[in-house]
TrEMBL record:
It comes from Mariniradius sediminis. This is Phage protein.
Amino acid sequence: MAKYYIKLEINGIEFQIQTDAGTEREAKDMAWDIIRDRTSFLSIRKDDAREVQSSFSKKIAAGLKSALLL
């Protein structure tokens, strides 16, 4: 077995994973296992862009209605 050092970059941050594997393929598989085991979701948020646009368009429509009523 040999030591393999796998470097990866996520959003400009470099990470290095060290594995003891027999082949490069095995090292890559071990790296994916390490990533899966040590990665957790901190939060999941819904993109509210459509809702913001919707409320913005409602505000414009209401503003136009009030302006036409004057």
